[in-house]
Amino acid sequence: MTPTLSFYGATRTVTGSKHLLKVGNAQILIDCGLFQGAKHLRDLNWDEFPFVPHELDAVVLTHAHVDHIGMLPRLVKDGFNGPIYATAATIALCRISLPDSGRLQEEEARFQNKRGLRAGAEPLYTEDDAYRVLKLMKPVKYHERHDLPGGASWVYKPAGHILGSAFVEMALPNGEILLMSGDLGRYDTPLIKDPEVVDYCDYLVIESTYGNRIHSDEDPMARLEEACAWAWQNGGTILVPSFAIGRTQELMYFFKQLQDAGRMPRIPIYIDSPMAVSATHAYAQAQDEHDEELKISIAEGSSELEPANLNYVRDREQSKALNRQDGPQIIISGSGMANGGRIKHHLRSRLGDENTFVLFTGYQAEGTLGRDLIEGQPTVSIFGEDVTVRARVDKLNSLSAHCDQKEMMNWLSFFRTPPKKTFIVHGEPEAQEVLAAKIKDELGWEVNIPEFGDTTELVN
Ligand SMILES: [Zn+2]
Fold first, then answer.
1. HEC string of 177-203?
2. CA of 65 to the centre of ligand 1 (A)
3. How many CB atoms lie under 10 A from the CB of residue 220?
4. How confident is the model at residue 143, as a pLDDT?
5. Cα of 279 to ligand 1 centre, how many Å?
6. Which residues of 190-204 are buried (b: 16+ CB within 10 A; e: fewer)?
């Protein structure tokens, strides 16, 4: 039987990654991500899975971002009971983020019921569902071949995107190679290893978040230094909506560097996100994943992820108290696109104040509060209330866990022969079209942009 690959998420959008590989009699799901952003996308999370969860033989994960793992609790709730393979660091991060995601779903349903926003609102899944997922997870090391039912096997290769992130290099029974990029990271970023060079595959599925863009070469340290000076002079509050995993740790690294260089006043820093607090500990502990620089400084006894004046805020009451506290201060809170989490409460109480500086740190998907704010909307809606924006709003342009077009083309340039088929996923349509044209023009490869539900045969 010819192996097939079906695309059930991250098609012409950046979230909801789900790819179903059928090989022999087996069905392997690669990633099981939550759709995020605009309502029409979030609504997809409530649809039935386009496959039967209990018929899946295994799940293989690329990394622990919610748009790649956030539907696992629903998958288990709907009957999946097989192994879920991931790197050890991905499992460590899932332990942090999945129960949190379950809690958020429950909180959201409670909030909607309380405010009468959605009568009889049920959570998509619960914290308990998330714990059932964790019991099914099995660690797999980088570069260690692992067999799957149906005669396929795979190895993980470092993707340089976040802690534990990996490409899935799948060997099909006929010896052909299917490479799933997951999210592709960047070279020379602090903390984690670079993406591994790949020079061959028969079928390639590649992300395209920044397929139409080149990251700014601005110096993030200089921007943070300027923001801190502003907060110090104005007694202002810097609100940083930050991805709990990866970005928050990078910020800690930059603040520490600024302090060590005498470029930052003594401003208290609050990480107001239980998930970010736990993720920071996971980053500090996962020594196998650290790049050489970080290894050396940790060996020297320095704590690169803990700047001075850092306060961890786990407790909800403490978080509420922060809302009433005057600056200067830096509050880092999730989610990174301000579409959920504690940052929404901070934004609701501080956006109307011109002594607030909202500093975004990464990609803002269509339909998110973050996108509205960076586009300069004078009024935004938070929890059904209109909030006038008087705060300063800006974005750090150079921080990203995703490679840009140039870095992507560089990574692809190592391939010795063109893949037979290349599929572009995980990008908004414009980014995908631009990247597809670039790959066709410069490399001469055949490129496809799959639609939701498309199935392709992996044949000679
Ligand atoms: Zn990711």
1. EEEECCCCCCCCCCCECCCCCCCCCCE
2. 5
3. 17
4. 95
5. 15
6. bbbbebbebeebbbb
Q: Name which of 246, 248, 372, 391 is nearest 327 in CA terms.
A: 391
Sorting pLDDT into bands at 50, 70 and 90, what band is 302? Answer: low
Task: Please tell me the distance from the alpha carbon of residue 169 to that of residue 337, in angstroms, as a whole number.
Answer: 30
What is the chain's alpha carbon radius of gyration, rounded to the nearest angstrom?
22
67 Cα: distance to centroid of ligand 1 (angstroms)? 7
Average pLDDT of the segment spanning 266-277: 92
Report all structural domains of the chain as residue ranges with CATH numbers, in order of start. Answer: 4-213+401-457 (3.60.15.10), 220-395 (3.40.50.10890)
Segment 112-166, tens digit of pLDDT:
888 877 778 899 999 999 999 999 999 999 999 999 999 999 999 999 999 999 9
CB 67 within 8 A of CB 17: yes
Distance 303 CA to ligand 1 centre (A): 25
- 3 state SS of 330: strand
**Whole-model pTM?**
0.87
How confident is the model at residue 332, as a pLDDT? 96
CA of 265 to the centre of ligand 1 (A): 33
In the numeric block, the tokens 């052909």 are attached to 176
